[in-house]
């Protein structure tokens, strides 16, 4: 009896030693594993701190076509890495009753046998991303009642049968495929679903998602959606993150976001919208991040975003703003500590990254519009005044109006009296100097004013 116990202890010590090592390429050297496989297979195991009789991980490398693994031990996680398995067959798996996580990503899988996962009684995570699957049969997942996470992104999937048996599913990722449509039958009764990513497909309609009332994160971006029904999100009252960007949506129904009071992140960039009515967003008072960039929308009110009292991050470049609105908008956002995220490179015609337009005919009119808002400081603007002395010998160079506005925003902090003198000096040069609406900018000497003011402020 004592000898038998000693032998068992020695055997356990041996197992503890090999679990720390990467075993040799030959399957014959995989120690405690009996694996009938070609000579390129290799498996490594690590321990489970919770139980001494169950290993945490089995990591199998270089598994090839027509492989099958017969393990004499129990483990919770099974990984296949650096493998090439075009056809996933039933015979590959035995003794996998306690496996909770299965990772078959990036293994070149093109075909899967029906009912292949019936032995995985406690499987909670299944990763099949970055493969070559073209269709998903409902029979694949028939017995996976405990499955909570399914990742199928970045395949070639065009057709989906059904996920209706996956009643415990929480996270589903179908992004980066070629799916053109699905119906309410496709998802069945997924009452527990909290995260759904179907971005970057070829979907024209997503009406089937309207009943996922536990959903927290929804991404339907980069599809071909033209219209979203006003009641589509009506039941998604727990939604926190919504991305509808890069679709062909031309208008938003006024009731679309009505029940999304808990929404904190909304991304609507690169749509076909021309205008955005605040009435569409009145229920989003808890919004913390809003992305509206690259919509080419017209904003005429700098107070538009004041409604979002909890806003922390805003992306709005790639839209149309009058320069006066931009100045007001930037001041308001800065005062509220809202961070502006830019998706485009700064250009000369931008004011702090936001392109703006204005209709002005005379330089003197532009300067006059800023005089009444100037601050008094005896030192400010002195160098700017000096640089106007030789305006007479230089012609105006047409560029863009936004450059002028940039300079004027800086001049707002200059001394009232000195600005008056600058104005008088320019008026002496000529009252009839005009700027074309197509390409408006100031002369090289006005650039000197800009440089002088920057030097003064530094």
UniProtKB/TrEMBL annotation:
Quote the Gene3D superfamilies the UniProt record gives. Answer: Ribonuclease Inhibitor (3.80.10.10)
Could you tell me which InterPro entries the record lists for this protein? Leu-rich_rpt, Leu-rich_rpt_typical-subtyp, LRFN, LRR_dom_sf
Q: Which UniProt keywords apply?
A: Glycoprotein, Leucine-rich repeat, Repeat, Signal
Residues annotated as signal peptide: 1-24
Keyword match Signal: yes
Q: Which Pfam families match?
A: LRR_8 (PF13855)
In Swiss-Prot or TrEMBL terms, this protein is called: Uncharacterized protein
What organism is recorded for this protein? Henosepilachna vigintioctopunctata
């Amino acid at each position: 009896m004592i000898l038998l116990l000693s032998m068992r202890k020695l055997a356990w010590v041996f197992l503890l030693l090999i679990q720390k090592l990467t075993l040799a390429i030959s399957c014959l050297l995989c120690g405690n594993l009996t694996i009938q496989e070609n000579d390129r297979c290799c498996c490594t195991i690590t321990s489970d701190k919770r139980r001494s009789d169950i290993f945490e991980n089995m990591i199998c490398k270089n598994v090839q076509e027509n492989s099958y693994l017969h393990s004499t031990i129990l483990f919770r996680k099974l990984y296949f890495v650096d493998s090439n398995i075009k056809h996933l067959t039933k015979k590959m798996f035995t003794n996998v009753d306690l496996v909770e996580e299965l990772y078959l990503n990036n293994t070149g899988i093109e075909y899967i046998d029906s009912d292949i996962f019936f032995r995985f009684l406690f499987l909670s995570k299944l990763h099949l991303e970055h493969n070559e699957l073209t269709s998903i049969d409902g029979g694949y997942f028939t017995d996976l009642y405990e499955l909570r996470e399914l990742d199928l992104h970045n395949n070639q999937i065009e057709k989906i049968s059904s996920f209706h048996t996956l009643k415990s599913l929480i996270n589903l990722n179908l992004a980066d495929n070629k799916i053109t449509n699905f119906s309410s039958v496709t998802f069945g009764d997924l009452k527990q679903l909290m995260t759904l990513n179907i971005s970057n497909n070829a979907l024209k309609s997503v009406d089937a998602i309207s009943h996922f009332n536990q959903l927290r994160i929804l991404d339907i971006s980069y599809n071909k959606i033209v219209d979203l029904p006003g009641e589509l999100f009506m039941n998604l009252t727990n939604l926190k993150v919504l991305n509808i960007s890069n679709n062909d949506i031309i208008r938003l129904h006024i009731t679309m976001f009505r029940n999304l009071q808990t929404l904190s992140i909304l991304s609507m960039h690169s749509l076909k919208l021309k205008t955005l009515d605040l009435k569409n967003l009145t229920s989003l008072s808890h919004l913390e991040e809003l992305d509206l960039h690259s919509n080419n929308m017209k904003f005429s009110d700098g107070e538009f975003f004041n409604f979002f009292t909890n806003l922390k991050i805003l992306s709005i470049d790639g839209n149309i703003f009058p320069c006066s609105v931009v100045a007001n908008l930037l001041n308001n956002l800065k005062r509220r500590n809202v961070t502006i995220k830019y998706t485009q490179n700064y250009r000369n015609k931008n004011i702090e990254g936001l392109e703006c337009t204005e209709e002005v005919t005379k330089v003197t009119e532009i300067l006059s519009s800023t005089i009444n808002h100037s601050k008094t400081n005896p030192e400010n603007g002195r160098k700017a005044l000096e640089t106007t002395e030789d305006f007479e010998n230089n012609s105006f160079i047409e560029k863009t109006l936004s450059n002028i506005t940039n300079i004027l925003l800086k001049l707002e902090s200059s001394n009232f009296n000195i600005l008056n003198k600058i104005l008088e000096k320019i008026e002496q040069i000529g009252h009839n100097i005009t700027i074309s609406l197509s390409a408006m900018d100031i002369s090289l000497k006005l650039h000197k004013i800009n440089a002088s003011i920057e030097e003064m402020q530094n």
